[in-house]
Write a structure and sequence with these properties.
The complex is a heterodimer of chains A (403) and B (328). With 403 residues, chain A is of the alpha+beta class. Chain A has nine helices and 19 strands. In chain A, the strands form five sheets. In chain A, strands 9, 12, 15, 16, 17, 18 and 19 form a seven-stranded mixed sheet that branches. By secondary structure, chain B is an alpha/beta fold. Classes of the chains: A alpha+beta (403), B alpha/beta (328).
Chain lengths: 403, 328
């Protein structure tokens, strides 16, 4: 009995995934639990394991974007007949309709491409040097309209240059200048675009506060001195802990806005925004209110390391209840973070800098840091946010209060 | 600046190294009183004595093995293999011993030996005495391979080979021994793995080794008269290969010819062509041309030998083909 391998839902909110490549070929033996293919989801690229043993009889989708639940391969006995349904989803479902629309779109663009590539030479192939092809590609020149003057009629670079100068038919309506680099959106950039556009629609307000970091820096310094090994706690780690403690006292901020309901969560699962090449991910440290600062530092170091190495799993990114975004290390004094839906709030952290301030009527120099809290007004009101932020400030200035 | 012949430049590198360093010595067949079959070591026994300029029995396997043993014991021997055709007899020692000990001992041993040898066509010594076999040794991980084409290069490269901690097979071309060039008083070591641009050009890069460097320079001169600007690059070290320099040159000129005296089939140029097509694929405006000997044992008759091995006219024809002139 053959088993249909369907695209799994690897996390809440995952609607589709992009198959990057198969790690097995048709006809290969496959053991349950063996890595079968690489899947690029909104957030991570990961290997997906086979959920059956046998022979990989058919790969229905070699690569590309596939909706969740679609049959992508069949595993069964050697020689077993395979029938892959065109689409394993029910007729008339919204996903099905979307998929059909996509298919139509693909068909149309495929036709266009074929038409453009229709060669004009008699033997059906255009002879052109790699350089000529590159120049043609960059300038959008159709090689089938360029006469080749090289050996055996090969189109060489000079021919393409001449054609470009005399205005040969071009593929693109407006050819881009050579200096413009075109980067197709990666899955991650698409997700960032989609989610942040979504976030922009939320009615948000911001609250700002300045914190005296003298005590917090001393605490952090002492923690580093006391710690023999492992990741050294940073100001960010301290802030994660302090926010978790404040979130536990202001559960309305530790909330997810779900349209017809607001979920108040019992643990502070704090997401940390991490810049990675060509993007941004927000891995989550769970239960920060129960973790020591050293444990938070260790968890943070591990997640950041894996994030930069592209080795995060979907599970590392799920379940956040609050997000901290810190640009202090770039010298940014203050900024406004965009909401990370469905979370109800996100904290933007600026640099700690020595500033003149008035203490007891005297101007003194103190290390100061600005915090800006962005709140989804559908879930949080001004006073609630202000009380939360006030506690974060109090805990940083008087760490004993957080105990 | 003194003018040295290629032969004198080799001798100069050996002599200076032996004066400065007791660990360096030379060995080979008839290299002492006779000064070697090509006269390279002439007079050296008078200065250094028979302990350091050692005649060996007529057994390439024995002399290569002895040199490797001395190197493993901390010396820096320079062993001369009279004709590179005779490398066949020493191949077991060079390929299976010299190239492997550093690796197989996990770095506990090193084999800083240099095998100097010479060969090439031009004097019609026949099928067993004029081959160009450098490509064989480039194929062996653990060996470095040098092929110098001018007096200054041969001196600086031989010095670096002697002081490299890996075995180096060092090829000289027989017809170049008389070639003269002004060289600096100070010996300047030339790092292994660094190509030399002999002549800058715009239209086509010719990557040439050994005698063909000079044939190519002559061809480039003629091409210039036809309005073709030729860049001439000599990799000098075949392993490690200065891929970046070769690729950069072809990216500039968009065309490439590789030229050596060895037979084209599986010659060093095949490797260069592969490196170039991969590194500069989108910059190539013509197929890479290869110039080398015809696939034949070398004939004894001078007119036939000349027919089999390439000359500047062959390089010029290849240059013209890449720019689409007189293409055939």
């Amino acid at each position: 009995m053959a088993t249909e391998i369907k695209l799994p839902r690897l996390g809440q909110g995952m609607e589709s995934g992009t198959i990057v490549k198969w790690l097995k070929s048709e006809g290969d033996k496959v053991e349950k639990g063996e890595p079968l293919y690489e899947l690029d989801t909104d957030k991570v690229t990961q290997e997906v394991e086979a959920d059956a043993s046998g022979v990989l009889l058919k790969i229905a989708v070699a690569e590309g974007e596939v909706p969740v639940g679609r049959t992508i391969a069949v595993i069964g006995e050697q020689g077993e007949a395979v029938e892959v349904a065109e689409d394993a989803q029910e007729e008339g479902s919204p996903a099905r309709a979307r998929e059909e629309e996509r298919e139509r779109g693909r068909g149309a663009s495929a036709e266009q491409v074929t038409e453009i590539r229709q060669p004009s030479t008699a033997n059906g192939r255009i002879k052109a040097s790699p350089l000529a092809r590159r120049i043609a590609r960059e300038r959008g020149i159709d090689l089938s309209n360029v006469a080749g003057t090289g050996p055996e009629g090969r189109v060489v670079a000079e021919d393409v240059e001449r054609a470009a100068a005399t205005g040969a038919p071009v593929l693109a309506a407006a050819p881009l200048s050579e200096d413009v680099e075109v980067e197709q959106l990666s899955s991650m950039r698409k997700t960032i675009a989609r989610r942040l556009t979504e976030a922009w629609q939320a009615p948000v307000f911001q609250l700002g506060i300045t914190v005296d970091m003298g005590r917090a820096l001393a605490v952090r310094k002492r923690l580093v001195e006391l710690q023999a090994d492992g990741a050294k706690p940073t100001v960010s780690d301290l802030l994660t802990k302090v926010c978790a403690m404040a979130l536990m006292r202001h559960r309305a901020v530790n909330a997810l806005y779900k349209g017809d309901a607001i979920e108040l969560h019992p643990t502070a699962n704090v997401g940390i925004a991490v810049a990675i090449p060509n993007g941004l991910v927000v891995p989550v440290i769970r239960g920060c209110e129960r973790k020591t600062i050293a444990e938070i530092a260790a968890a943070r170091a591990e997640l950041v390391d894996r994030a930069r190495g592209g080795r995060l799993q979907q599970g590392d990114l799920d379940g956040g209840t609050f997000t901290i975004s810190n640009l202090g290390m770039f010298g940014i004094e203050r900024f406004i973070a965009v909401l990370n839906p469905p979370q109800a709030a996100i904290l933007a952290v600026g640099a700690t800098e020595d500033k003149p301030v008035v203490v007891d009527g005297e101007v003194v120099v103190r290390p100061r840091m600005e915090l800006t809290l962005t709140c989804d007004h559908r879930a949080i009101d001004g006073a609630t946010g202000a009380q939360f932020l006030g506690d974060v400030k109090a805990f940083l200035e008087e760490p004993g209060l957080a105990l | 600046m003194p003018e040295l012949s290629y032969r004198e430049a080799v001798r100069d590198a050996l002599t200076r190294a032996m004066r400065e360093d007791d660990d360096v010595f030379v060995m080979g067949e008839d290299i002492a009183e006779m000064g070697g079959s090509m006269g390279v070591t002439q007079g050296m026994v008078d200065e250094f004595g028979p302990e350091r300029v050692r005649n060996t029995p007529i057994s390439e396997m024995a002399l290569a093995g002895a040199a490797i043993g001395a190197a493993m014991q901390g010396m820096r021997p320079v062993a001369e293999i009279m004709y590179e055709d005779f490398l066949t007899l020493a191949t077991e020692q060079i390929v299976n011993q010299a190239a492997k000990h550093r690796y197989m001992s996990g770095g506990q041993l090193s084999v800083p030996v240099t095998f100097r040898t010479q060969g090439g066509a031009g004097w019609s010594p026949g099928a067993q005495h004029a081959q160009q076999l450098e490509a064989w040794f480039v194929h062996i991980p653990g060996l470095k391979v040098v092929f110098a084409s001018t007096p200054a290069d041969v001196r600086g490269l031989l010095w670096s080979s002697i002081y490299d901690d890996n075995p180096v097979v060092f090829f000289e071309h027989r017809t170049l021994y008389g070639l003269k060039e002004e060289v600096p008083d100070e010996l300047e070591p030339i790092p292994l793995g660094q190509a030399r641009i002999h002549r800058a050009g715009e239209d086509v890069t010719v990557i040439a080794t050994g005698r063909l460097v000079h044939e190519t320079l002559a061809a480039a001169q003629e091409a210039e008269g036809e309005g073709i600007s030729v860049e001439v690059v000599d990799p000098r070290t075949l392993q490690p290969l200065d891929e970046d320099a070769l690729i950069a040159s072809v990216k500039k000129t968009n065309r490439c010819v590789v030229a050596h005296e060895a037979v084209t089939r599986m010659g060093f140029g095949a490797e260069v062509a592969a490196v170039i097509q991969y590194g500069a694929f989108d910059w190539l405006d013509a197929p890479i041309e290869r110039v080398g000997a015809k696939f034949s044992p070398l004939p004894f008759a001078p007119v036939m030998e000349e027919f089999v091995v390439p000359h500047s006219a062959d390089v010029l024809a290849a240059i013209r083909r890449t720019v689409g002139r007189n293409g055939n």
